[in-house]
Amino acid sequence: MLSTKRRLTGVVLGSVLALGGTAAVPAAAQTPARAGCGIAVNEPHIYQRWNALGGAGGWLGCPTTGTRDVYLNGAYAGKRQYFTYGTATWSPRQGSNMVVAAWEDRGYAYFNWGTTAPYRYDSFLVRWTSASDPGGTQREFGGGTSGRIRVQERNTGAYVFVVEGCDIGTFGHTCRQGWTLKASTPN
Prior knowledge:
Layout: H1 4-18, H2 44-52, E1 68-72, E2 75-82, E3 86-90, E4 99-105, E5 108-114, E6 121-130, E7 133-144, E8 146-152, E9 160-169, E10 172-174, E11 183-184
Antiparallel strand pairs: 1-2, 2-3, 3-4, 4-5, 5-8, 6-7, 6-9, 9-10, 9-11
């Protein structure tokens, strides 16, 4: 069961991010630290998201691994860190501060992303897969520079999410920066 602080932090942050805003992080909180956990959150972008989501007592909980490099087709693409309740991944191809995070709580899998600045999109395509839906589901959501969704969990396995920002033109969607790196709930 989540603490009241963890629930309120998520509601406030989710509201701010869903409206296309950003969450301010005090300068003192921008320095990576252990914050009561045995493992440090060393990557600054991931640290800011983790801290905004409530830190050790928040939606992601404490780190369970160190920060890991992520590669796509043999090329460096970003960083990922695993936490008690999910993951946070820095995906700079979609914006230098783009972090995607996923976690689970009370029968729902949550996913948030942002900021895509300097890019701004007309819509976001979000894709997720799970053991009960290995082929995946894709939905379109409102645009801007960030967003958040929740999906009712239908199994006890991990949910894996990616997002892609798109502009809508006369002949369909144009999605120039491609899909983000993955973020997932725990197994």
